[in-house]
Amino acid sequence: MGSRILLRQCVKELRNNNKQWIERAIATNAQCNTNKLVDINKALEVPEAEQESTEKFLNPMEFDRQQQLKKYIAVSSQENIPIVTGIPEEHIKTRRVRIYQPPKNAMQSGTNNIHNWQIDYDTRERWENPLMGWTSSGDPLSNLKVEFATKEEAIAHCIKMQYEYEIQKPNRSQPKPRSYGENFSWNKRTRVSTK
Fold first, then answer.
1. Which residues have CB under 8 Å from 93's CB, separation 6+?
2. Where is the composition biased (Polar residues) (predicted)?
3. Strand 164-167 relative to strand 96-100: parallel, antiparallel, unpaired?
4. Which of 27, 48, 66, 134 is least surrounded, with the fewest CB atoms within 10 Å of its CB?
5. Residue 136 resides in a domain
C-alpha cells in the first residue's frame, strides 16, 4: 500500500517537472529558431573553399597534361581529310557528286522521309554479267548514298572530302486546286471514267 502511494507521488512530480521542462524547451527552441535563421543566412554568404584533387600535388606534370587535353584544339581551316580516310585517290580526285533532295515515293508512303538531302556518286565501270544478265560494277561507291539534314551540310562534306559537286534543285509539283464537284462534270479534262 505504501509503495503505491509513493509511486503516485513520484509520477505526479515527474509530470509537473516534465511540464516545466517542456515549457522551457519550447521557449529556448523559439529563440534558437530565430538564431538558426540568422546563422543559416550567414553560412550561405560565406564562400566555400575550392576543392583540389590530390593528383595535382602527387603528380603535377600528369595533372597539367590532363587539363590541357580537356581544352579545345585549334585546327587550321584547310584540312586534308581524304589522306587520312584511306580511300584510294582515284575515287576522290576524279569523282563527281550530285547533291539532291529525293523525290516523293509513288506509293502511299507520303512525304515524311524526303525532307533530307543526299549525295550520289557518278557511276562508272559497269558491265553486264554474262551468267544472269545482271549489271555488275567494280566501283565501291556506285551504290552509296549519304544523307544530310540540310543542303549546307552536304556541301560542307563535299568540300571537306575534296569532291567536285553539283546541286540539283528539287522538283516540286504544285497540285491544282479542284473542287469535289469537278469529278462529276461533263468536261473531258476533268471527267473520270467509270470503266
1. 162
2. 170-187
3. parallel
4. 48
5. yes
User: At 146, phi and psi to the nearest 5?
Assistant: -110, 130
Residue 164 or 142, more confident? 164
Does residue 162 fall inside a structural domain? Answer: yes
Q: pLDDT tens digits, residue range 73-93?
A: 776 666 677 677 777 777 777
Please choose, from the candidates 193, 87, 112, 97, the residue with its C-alpha nearest in 3D space to the C-alpha of residue 154: 97
How many structural domains is the chain composed of? 2
CA distance 169 to 165: 13
- Give the C-alpha separation, 124 to 91, whole Å: 11
- Per the listing, cell 553560412 goes with 43
Residue ranges making up the domain that contains 179: 94-105+112-195
Is 81 a domain residue? no
**Cα–Cα distance for residue pair 88/82, rounded to 1 Å:** 9
